[in-house]
Amino acid sequence: KQWYQRRVAITAGRLDDSTDVNSIKLEVTLPKYLSTHNIDVDVQPRYVKVEAESRTFQLVLNQEICPDKSSCQRSQLTGVLVLTMPTAKQTIVPEKVKKQSFREENSKFVKKQTSKTTAFLEVDPTKKSDLDFGNIVNNSLKSKPLSAKRTVIKEKVVSDDFVDDPDVPPLL
Q1: Rounded to 5 degrees, what angle do the CA atoms 24, 27, 30 make?
Q2: CA distance 10 to 49
Q3: pTM of the complete model
Q4: Beta bridge partners of 87
Q5: What is the pLDDT along the chain (172 residues), one digit of tens a residue?
């Protein structure tokens, strides 16, 4: 029998140094079913080298990195190898202050002003005669109450030849 060696393709997925100023992310695409025992990653201050089954991928970096603080993770789902390498020269970046929206600021202000006492609207008794809603519909036009329209249901007469079976439950 002859054993055929499967060829392995290593492709650089993405080099990202714009998201975080203090680190460089390198995504290397490897085959999904390649064992991690066959992958060798060498991180040096000026270059990164990935070897997988006699295939080599090497990348020269434009910044110095800290190899001791670098990390390497592999996705179990896709097989992508992600190398996170912090730079040697760390720059301090101020945190972005989240501006509160106008609505949030006003809601805090309104919540502080509300009191626990309930205020009722007072109506002037002299104006009440003009706004009498009880006399909108004339009494003569009102319909009769619904209770007067009910009809009585009469029971059906049971025939003489009817036999009541005790095994059958009653219909309700």
Answers
A1: 155
A2: 11
A3: 0.50
A4: 65
A5: 455 555 667 776 788 877 888 899 999 988 888 888 999 999 999 999 999 888 888 988 888 999 999 999 999 898 899 999 999 988 887 776 666 565 666 666 555 555 566 766 676 666 555 556 666 666 655 555 555 566 777 888 888 888 888 888 877 6
